[in-house]
Every structure is written in structure tokens, then in C-alpha cells.
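Section 5: illustrative case.
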């Protein structure tokens, strides 16, 4: 590891402060219910008031925006009927926490998501530091996360996807810590002349960081079911790491040894713990009598030993799964996932045309969930480079980043008929940034490289970083809804599919 202490924290904290500025300044703008905030802000308020989601009246949005933000004063926007919602409650409870503290206002329903987005920058910086053993590269990763437009827009909007990204990144960091801890423990055993073990190698004992990863993945699934992809991917990742570790210390058959020693404990730590945590996230639904399908099983005999509450929850999930798999209604901003890595069809969250806001005959204040194109396009190429490094160089770090990227992207390629949006790709962002920074680390050169090689590496990486910062500054107005004239707007539409 690089030098620890304040040197390992100064850079990550600095870029996290930058991220906070970009995400928190004027967070209440636009003073409107933006895109799918119309669902999640009201669901968060309903959870806060009743413990479960209720249907709202037709003019609920207008009443909310005209109110003083006091949650109790908005009881009248809800009917007595439960609402059929298709996403678990964790992300909406996060939104509700901001409403509890700051009221049912645009700032109130966005602030908790913004904080989650800010903390994600710190996490990525520290994770890349651990991956690359470099304080510089860790800070650079945090900087790119801080200035990326997708991260900024999604952190300033009360949707669920930033919360999903956060828990996925937490789980990934826990797996890295578990890998380092496990290898350090085995290294001590190998060096101990009195240590003995059988043909399958030593037992690894209780693995706290794997349990932590299971908790994080359970919470990720409690935000969106797409967290399941990471349960599978990260579970396989840690098993492959254990196989590699046992091979490294000379176990004769590391595959069998891992199967016998590690697979079941890893399954318990990640899958079983995750399932328990996921079920617990529905505590508000369990505690209510009126939530959607809460009493379904009471009218359906034959459940055997399974509690009625769990049978009812299973029926709820069955209906939600049917909704997700059959969602094919057309939408002007639906985006094919093949285009996500290159930001082919970003989602427009808000468009306000007002001739008075910029002094021209026609102005546009726009919030477009568009990543910094320089970062995303370069990261797409870097992901190809990291795939090559994993295959040709057997670089475990490249494989780890590729695993996270594929878990966030590959499953969506099989839903070509489903209505999906590009802002789902926010979960890809940390892994694309990791790939990009690792490739930039290769460009910088190794410690043994010549002075001339290092000089040109620094020039290349420094130039790229400067260009990325300038591009972010150029696009920032369309990420936060600053008013632009039409010519200024057109300058930022580099691809016709962005409009």
C-alpha cells in the first residue's frame, strides 16, 4: 500500500469537497418535481407518514409545490388506498430521511440522494487507491467521479439509481478489503514454520468483510432488483479470488479446495446475509395492515409452514416481476443499452423555455442526464484495454473492474424490448472511472520507466485531465438547469441523439 495517514486521505477528501460543491449549490433548482421524482418523492413522504406507499390524489404535485413543506400538512394528498409500487423501499427511505429533516421541498427530497452521491466519490477514490496502490491515481479517480455530469445530475435528483450505485460500490470495496485481509492472513501462515494444514489448505475463518459485502448487497437489492446481478457477479468474483489465493500458496487442487473450504461460507456471508437484510428492508410493509397485498395470503389457504406475511410478500414480488418484464410502453427518451457506454441517448429530466431568463428572444434551462463525453468515451476504450490486460496479463484488478462493469451493463442487453433509460448507467460509472484511471496509470509508466518516458506520460495524463475538467465546465449549465440561449445550447449538442 502507498504511504498511509493524511497523505492517503487529503486528495480523496479534497475531491469529495469539490463533489459536494457541484452537487449541493442551488440544489433546490429547478423548483419542480423532475421526471420520476413524481413517484419517488411522494413514495418517500408516504413511507414517512404511513410506513408504506399510498396512492396520491390527481393534483398532488401542485399541492406539494404550493405547500410550506411540512409533511403533516400534506396528509391530504394521499388516498386511503395502498399503491402498487415496483421497487423495494430502501431508496425511498433514503429520500424520506431528507424529507424528515428539511421538509417536503425540492431540497428536502433531494438532499439525502446528494449526500449519497458525494460519499460515492470518496469511496471510489479510496477504492482505486487500494486497487492501484497509488494515492495519485485514487485522487484522480475521485476527481473524475466528482466532475462527471451523470454523477452530478443523478445526485441532484431524487431517483433511486445513485443509492443503488452507492451500495454496489460499498460491496465492491468490502470485497477488496476481504481479499487483502485473507491474503495477509495466509501470508503470515506460510511464513510461520509451526503452521500446518491439510491438503486443502488452511481454513480462512470468519470473514467480516464478506458479511459487510452481503449487507451492502442486500441493501442494493432493497433499492432495485438489479442489485441481484451484483450478488451473482461479486459472489463468483470472491470465489475466483479464493481459488487464486489457494493456488498461490501451493494447494495441489485449488478448485476442489475452494469448493470444500470457501464456497459455502461465502454463500452464507453474501447470499444468505443479503436475503435476510433484503427482507428486513420491508419492515414498514410487514408492520402495516393496509399495505398493498399485505393480507393476500390470509385469503389463500395451503401455505403450509410458510408464514402468511412471507407468502403475501412473494405474491407482491410476483406481480412486480410481471410489471418489469412486460414494460414495453414507448418513451421518447428510451435508450438501447448498447449505447450506454458512449452516452448515445441521455435522458432529459427537465426543460424550461423562458425568454426572460437569459435576455434573448428564446432561452432554455435544461437538465440533461449526460455524462462528460470525454470521460465516458475514453473510459469505454479503457475498458477494452482492461479486458485485454485481464486476458493477456492475468491482471486481477482488471478482472475485478470488468466484473463490476459487466454486472451493471451486460444483463440489460437481454431486455431489448423493455423500456429502459440511459440514466440506469450511473451504476456503471464507478467501474468505468476505475478502468479509465488504471489505463491512465499504464500511460504514466512504472517506477522503473525512464525519465523521458515518465515525462511524456505525465504530459499525456495531465493534458487529458485538463481537457476533462474544461469539458465538464462547458457542460455544467445543462446539468444543473442554468439558462442558455439557443446558440449556446446547440454548441453543447455534439450528437443528434442528445436533443
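Designed sequence:
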Amino acid at each position: 500500500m502507498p504511504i498511509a495517514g493524511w497523505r492517503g486521505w487529503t486528495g480523496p477528501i479534497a475531491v469529495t469537497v469539490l463533489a459536494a460543491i457541484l452537487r449541493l449549490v442551488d440544489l433546490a433548482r429547478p423548483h419542480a418535481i423532475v421526471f420520476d421524482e413524481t413517484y419517488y418523492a411522494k413514495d418517500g413522504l408516504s413511507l414517512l407518514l404511513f410506513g408504506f406507499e399510498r396512492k396520491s390524489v390527481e393534483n398532488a404535485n401542485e399541492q406539494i409545490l404550493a405547500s410550506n413543506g411540512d409533511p403533516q400538512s400534506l396528509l391530504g394528498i394521499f388516498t386511503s388506498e395502498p399503491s402498487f409500487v415496483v421497487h423495494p423501499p430502501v431508496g425511498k427511505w433514503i429520500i424520506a430521511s431528507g424529507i424528515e429533516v428539511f421538509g417536503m421541498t425540492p431540497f428536502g427530497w433531494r438532499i439525502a440522494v446528494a449526500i449519497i452521491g458525494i460519499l460515492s466519490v470518496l469511496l471510489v477514490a479510496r477504492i482505486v487507491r487500494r486497487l492501484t496502490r497509488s494515492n495519485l491515481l485514487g485522487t484522480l479517480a475521485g476527481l473524475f467521479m466528482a466532475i462527471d455530469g451523470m454523477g452530478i445530475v443523478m445526485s441532484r435528483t431524487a431517483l433511486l439509481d445513485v443509492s443503488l450505485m452507492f451500495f454496489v460500490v460499498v460491496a465492491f470495496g468490502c470485497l477488496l478489503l476481504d481479499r487483502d485481509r485473507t491474503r495477509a492472513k495466509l501470508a503470515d501462515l506460510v511464513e510461520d514454520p509451526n503452521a500446518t494444514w491439510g491438503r486443502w489448505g488452511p481454513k480462512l475463518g470468519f470473514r467480516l468483510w464478506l458479511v459487510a459485502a452481503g449487507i451492502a448487497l442486500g441493501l442494493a437489492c432493497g433499492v432495485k432488483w438489479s442489485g441481484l446481478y451484483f450478488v451473482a457477479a461479486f459472489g463468483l468474483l470472491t470465489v475466483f479470488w479464493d481459488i487464486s489465493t489457494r493456488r498461490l500458496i501451493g494447494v495441489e487442487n485449488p478448485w476442489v479446495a475452494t469448493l470444500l473450504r470457501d464456497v459455502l461460507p461465502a454463500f452464507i456471508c453474501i447470499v444468505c446475509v443479503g436475503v435476510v437484510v433484503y427482507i428486513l428492508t420491508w419492515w414498514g410493509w410487514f408492520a402495516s395492515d393496509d399495505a398493498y397485498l399485505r393480507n393476500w395470503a390470509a385469503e389463500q389457504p395451503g401455505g403450509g409452514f410458510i408464514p402468511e406475511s412471507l407468502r403475501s410478500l412473494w405474491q407482491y414480488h410476483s406481480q412486480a416481476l410481471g410489471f418489469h418484464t412486460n414494460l414495453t410502453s414507448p418513451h421518447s427518451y428510451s435508450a438501447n443499452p448498447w449505447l450506454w457506454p458512449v452516452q448515445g441517448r441521455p435522458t432529459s429530466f427537465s426543460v424550461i423555455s423562458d425568454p426572460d431568463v437569459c435576455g434573448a428572444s428564446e432561452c432554455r434551462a435544461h437538465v440533461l442526464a449526460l455524462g462528460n463525453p470525454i470521460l465516458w468515451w475514453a473510459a469505454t476504450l479503457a475498458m477494452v484495454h482492461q479486458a485485454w490486460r485481464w486476458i493477456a496479463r492475468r491482471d486481477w484488478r482488471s478482472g475485478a473492474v470488468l466484473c463490476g462493469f459487466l454486472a451493471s451493463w451486460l444483463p440489460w442487453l437481454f431486455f431489448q424490448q423493455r423500456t429502459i433509460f440511459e440514466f440506469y448507467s450511473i451504476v456503471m460509472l464507478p467501474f468505468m472511472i476505475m478502468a479509465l484511471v488504471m489505463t491512465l496509470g499504464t500511460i504514466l509508466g512504472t517506477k522503473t520507466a525512464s525519465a523521458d518516458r515518465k515525462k511524456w506520460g505525465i504530459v499525456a495524463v495531465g493534458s487529458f485531465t485538463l481537457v476533462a475538467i474544461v469539458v465538464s465546465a462547458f457542460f455544467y449549465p445543462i446539468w444543473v438547469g442554468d439558462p442558455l440561449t439557443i446558440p449556446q445550447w446547440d454548441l453543447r449538442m455534439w450528437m443528434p441523439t442528445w436533443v
